[in-house]
Write a structure and sequence with these properties.
single chain, 234 residues, alpha+beta, Gyrase A, domain 2, Cyclophilin, 2 domains, 4-stranded antiparallel beta sheet, 22% helix
Length: 234
Amino acid sequence: MQELRFEVKPYGADAVLLSFGDEISLAIHNQVKQLYSELRNYAKKGIRAVIPGYCTVTILFEPKMVSLNEVVELSKNIVDNNKVQDEKKYKVRIPVCYDKQFALDWEVICDYTGLKWEEVVELHCCNEYLVYMLGFVPGFLYLGGLNEQIRIPRKSSPRLKIPKGAVGLADNQTGVYPLETPGGWQLIGNAPVDLIGVNSAVVEMGDYLEFFPITKKQHASYSKQIERILVNEN
């Protein structure tokens, strides 16, 4: 695996952001995930929180227990030891109703891509997506791997209210809104599932996800829970 080094950006006296650049890639994702996983083991040694992003890891620490330099050196050691290995792979399948009642931006998407709506739906469903991270609200899935043919910019003016379960497109990403919230993604459908469990998100960073189409009638009565299915164990 290629060596990946990061830029150090301190934030005040008790936080630091480690940046691997601005490229969304599997190699960087694996390194971010490795840092996130290993740094959480140091909670009793002054690491208060570890927040992963597409290309970054933000670390909150207790200055009385560990210094900024020690946090950075620890992170460098994790990167230099290059311990990223094959892990268990989990897959999640999420139903989406692509009916135009839910696909509020279907005309915009078709006009921008030059595709028929049926072609857009097929391209969105036929992919396997990687969950790069979760944010900006609990359970929001940022998914990489969107087909180039259906990539489209965000809306110039965000909506003040997007319904729970809305599935959207934004540049090279697709995602699912876990609850009603403002947002600027182009809406392609709706997933009638709960993405937030009792104590945490149902889907985790590093999972793989597939969408499958359902009808309006199926959407109205859908009651199955999301399952994380183990598809390989190394």
